[in-house]
Amino acid sequence: MKGHPLARMVLYSVIATIVGTVLVLVIDWFPTGASTAAGPIDRLYDVLLVPSVVIFVLVMTVVIYCAVKFRAKPGDLGDGAPIHGSTRLEIFWVTVPFIMVTALAVYGWVVLDDIEAKQPNTLIVGVRAQQFAWRFTYPDEGDLKTNQLVLPKDRPVEFRVTTNDVLHSFWVPQFRLKTDTVPGLTTKIRVTPNREGRYDVVCAELCGIGHSTMRQAVRVVAPGEYSAWSAQAKKQQKTVGGETPPEPE
Amino acid sequence: MTLAGRLKAPGWSRAALSQPIGFLVALGVVVGVRALYGYDPLVDWDAIITVVLIALPLAFLVGIGCFDYWFRWASGAPTVPEDHSGHGARSWKDYFYVNTDHKVIGIQYIVTTFFFFIAGGLMAMVMRAELAQPGTQFVEPNTYNGLFSVHASLMIFLFIIPVFAGIANYVIPLMIGAPDMAFPRLNALSFWMLPTAGILMLASFFADGGAFATGWTAYAPLSTETPLGQTFFTIAVQFAGASSIATALNFLVTIITMRAPGMTFWRMPLLVWANFTTSLLVVIATPFIAGSQFFVLLDRSLGTNFFNVGANGDALMYQHVFWFYSHPAVYIMMLPGFGIVSEVISANARKPVFGYRMMAFSLMAIVVLGFTVWAHHMFVSGMFSWLRVPMMITTMLIAVPTGIKIFSWLATLWRGVIHLTTPMLFALGFITMFTLGGISGIMLAVIPVVIHVSDTYFVVAHIHYVLFGGSVFTIFAGIYHWFPKMTGRMYDESLGKLHFWLSFVFFNLTFGPMHLVGVDGMPRRVADYAEQFATMNVIISVSSFLFGLSFLVFLYNMVTSWRNGPKAAANPWRAHTLEWQVSSPPPIFNFDEVPTVVGGPYEYGVPGAVHGVFKEKRGAAVPAGGGGAPPPAE
After folding, report:
1. Which domain holds residue A228?
2. Cross-chain residue pair A70–B418, CB shorter than 8 Å
3. CATH number of the domain enclosing A180
4. pLDDT, tens digit, for every residue of B488-514?
5. pLDDT tens sequence across B368-405
6. Cα distances (angstroms) measured from residue B31 to each of B46, B51, B452
7. What domain count does chain A have?
8. Same domain flag for A157 and A187
9. Residue A77 lies in a domain
């Protein structure tokens, strides 16, 4: 009869693993993906979730099973079995996690190289942060300076990010990519927006009193619309001599 | 005693007198130096307050009497023969004076740190009230930034790190069969530096411009440019850090040199191993945060340019130095908890700790690996990009020794005789919650995921799973487990269990949903957030209030049980380690007779096995751990 409850424990843990896996994969974790990086990153996250569920369920099941099965009867002052260890078991739970994390690290590395790969025909966009706003320059568009961030769909963009004052972090959740802005450095991230729409540029690094409201918009538009916008903005910059006003919220 | 006598003797009167003297000295130094340099204005309050913040705590430590013996010795005056009058507590009032007894100091640590735990917890409640709805309701953004900064600083520097030092202070000398710590006066000084650090942090709320508001990480150059409150943090960290380093040295020397005869390293209980490894981490790593905060202080007050890019400073350097301490600090906040859990689980499952030597080796592995992963906090910081992949790999490898510990605890439960006491419940709760924290930790090592979730609520969720579901659960386990030893009384088991279940449920309801809002795009450290996160945040806030209330059950249990709880037996858990072989509370010098250790600390179920024996004058050895007459039933 000794094997019977153990088999039941295995059964429960298999059921819990299946339910848990389905549950975490059904959850819509991420905001809408709007760049080519979103697909690989979201998939990587999902792949990480599966072994996570397996391990968590394993730990939970053993804890609950032991707490129920081996709980002392009232008045039982006896001791448990004097098991001091098992080399075989210890080798097993050193090796398996080692292989698991190594595999996941390699996968993570592959995805990293993939999303950071250089692309041809890249649009350079300068991003300059200051407490508590973002400004953008388009060196490819006659050094256009603007408070608006407008990007053509499907064209790779390289953001060159810097700051006038303290650390900030340039983040568009829908693009999945982020980099800190560091005084004295120009940090770079590459993004290929692939979904038209209007998203938030969020500051993700504490930068002072206005940090939580340091949000602006990024618009991803069709290439034609982008050209029209940049021509219009260049004209405005020339005639007015100033910067384009920020977009209305 | 006459007033003049009271002002001469160490104590609160002299401490009170020391404060105006310290203030005047600081004032004199600043005005004098500015006069020498011909600076205008002569009276610069920012400069004066900076020096005052260093002078007043030092003056207090002198006044309360931490240095009396050393000063007397250093000045060549005849030393006062040690009459042990400053050793041990005879009434509750003795806890408010400098005392050299490790048991008194342990309790001083624990009570003081829980005071700051409550203060930090109340700040969290205010933050959750503010975050219950988008927009600004209760506190302005600047106050909000101050609240989360002070909250985190108190929880880390004034609660988790020192409360473990407090528990270890009480338990370690008893566990290794020593009469006290190696350096009792240094031990007292270590304790008294703590409240000064905590009060500096709390006092920053009254500074011009509000409390320090740059997070507990105090990233430069924001921290070198913000108002005066930041200075309170940089100086408070020095006192907390010095306290931490001195205690760690004390533990190292105590553990290396003062073990009972027969207690080899491989017969030490795992809590002793845990504090040994933690102390190594503290001694090696803590000077780095001291350095980082000195850089900030010097940039702020003396015009150095460590982080001033305009003068060839380096802003990123701050983060490297800071995390070179603050990642190992994560293990400083966790390894002692691992030790507590090993003690609690073996005693309550009535089984030897599975794979004892691997448990000790994995602690050492974590110490070594812990120093090779700091830059995983900087994956989006703009640092040189080649360092990211090696740091990802080392970070993920830490899962291996941590996994050894989790699986070994599970194997310890297997075929045990499990008593679900309150400390055991907290230990089991710890295993499950820390597993979750470890899993999100693995995710936070995988660079492409981190690029999205760094600085979001996902990170907030992760650190609370690791530090609350992890560290604080082990602290509760430890407090309940050694409560009978420390107070001589039993706590209320039903209230303890109620406390566990309330904390367990509301902990998960509070911090679980934070994973979701984080991945969905809510940044951390924000006083306000986008409308789309409103529903989740109100759920989190309501859960957090109930979570906060659950702490009252603990507090009530502790206070009433300490006053009126039933008297505790010497060994209510029938544990084998040495601290349970003396009365509860122990005699003033711990052991009337030095025990001899003859076996491992966890030989449950091994017939006739004992850990230590007292060789009485008659010559017959009396078992001191296991194998003796069974104590009365629970």
Report:
1. 123-240
2. yes
3. 2.60.40.420
4. 999 999 999 999 999 999 999 999 999
5. 999 999 999 999 999 988 999 999 999 999 999 999 99
6. 12, 11, 51
7. 2
8. yes
9. no
Does A99 share its domain with A184? no
B282 close to B248: Cβ distance less than 8 angstroms = yes
Pairs of residues, one from chain A and one from chain B, whose beta carbons lie less than 8 Å apart: 257
**Chain B from 339 to 378: CB within 8 A of any A CB:** 349-352, 354-358
Q: Is residue A248 part of a domain?
A: no
Q: What is the DSSP track for B540-598?
A: HHHHHHHHHHHHHHHHHHHHHHHHHPPBPPS-TT---SGGGGS-SSPPTTS-SS--EE-
Q: Is the CB of B141 less than 8 angstroms away from the CB of A210?
A: yes
Q: Is B606 on the interface with A (CB under 8 A)?
A: yes
Cβ–Cβ below 8 Å for A215 and B603: no
List, for residues A108-126, the tens digit of each pLDDT value. 999 999 999 999 999 999 9
> Domain check: are A59 and A141 in the same one?
no
Residue of A48, A184, A210 with shortest CB distance to B309:
A184
Please indicate, yes or no, whether residues A63 and A127 belong to a single structural domain of this protein: no
A152 close to A223: Cβ distance less than 8 angstroms: yes
Q: Is the dihedral of CA B453, B455, B459, B461 positive or negative?
A: negative
Of B352, B414, B448, the CB nearest to A40: B448
- Examine the fold and report which residue of A101, A116, A131 is the final residue of a domain before the chain moves on: A116
A228 lies in the same domain as A201: yes
Contact A176 B451 (CB under 8 A): yes
- Contacts with A186 (C-beta within 8 Å, 6 or more apart), sequence order: A160, A161, A162
**Cβ–Cβ below 8 Å for A210 and B633:** no
Residues A61 and A135 occupy one common structural domain: no
**Are B431 and A59 inside 8 Å of each other by CB?**
yes
C-beta atoms of B420 and A71 within 8 A: yes
Alpha-helical segments (H) within B38-101: 45-64, 68-74
Read off the pLDDT of residues B67-124 as tens digits, 9 standing for 90 and up.
998 999 899 988 777 778 888 888 899 999 999 999 999 999 999 999 999 999 999 9
- Residue A74 within any structural domain of the chain: no
Query: Cβ of B387 under 8 Å from any chain A Cβ?
Result: no
Enumerate domains of chain B plus CATH numbers. 3-74 (no CATH), 98-333 (1.20.210.10), 353-567 (1.20.210.10), 569-634 (no CATH)
- A112/A131 same-domain check: no
Are residues A104 and A9 located together in one domain of the fold? yes
Instruction: Please give the ipTM for the structure prediction.
Output: 0.94
Asked if residue A146 is part of any domain, the answer here is: yes
Q: Is the Cβ of B219 closer than 8 Å to some Cβ of chain A?
A: yes
Handedness of CA B127, B129, B135, B137 (dihedral sign): negative
Is the CB of B215 inside 8 Å of chain A's CB atoms?
Answer: yes
CB atoms B525 and A79 under 8 Å: no
